[in-house]
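Page 47, continued from p. 46.
Same chain as before, 204 aa.
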Amino acid sequence: MKEIYFIRHGETDYNKKGIIQGSGVNSSLNDTGRAQGQAFYEFYKEIDFQVVFVSALKRTRETVQNFIGKKISTEEWKELNEINWGESEGKVSTPEARQEYLAMIAAWGNDNFDARISGGESAADLMARLNIFLAHLKTRPEKRILVCTHGRTLRCVMTLLKGEHPREMEKYKHSNTGLFKANFDGERFEVILENDVRHLGEMC
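Result:
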């Protein structure tokens, strides 16, 4: 049995200010985000993770830096990056941008997985690269694996692990450093925790 811990990165100032990040904004954690990462480490530091996967964006690496500092094998995968939100990245959401987003989500629900924000990625793009990573994950020999990634990416991962339609992404809530845990028995994934934030205690 393989145990995989998927977490979202800690808070950034972009999160705090409601500015859209995506894969084109390589922001660092703020003080709250660093405290969230520390809280996750303190809660789970006794688990003998054998490998850590991060995206190519530094906010994921910063979130799990304490585990990396224990000399655990660490790999960076661009496939774990946040979705690219195109022209919306680096901007505060506007009513017009919100309408474009909702139209894209509605299109995904109607099986148009190529719909996207102007200049950004589609659901098909996101699923394709995440399937590359998940296929690799199945082959890994390690029994306890930590993966730090991003909000929309986690939503998509959940639908892929469960074999759900992409429209189901919207039902998954994701807090900064929220934990999603899955087991893999060699044939199928079983999700056993979703957005668990017990480690944050009073920070929730």
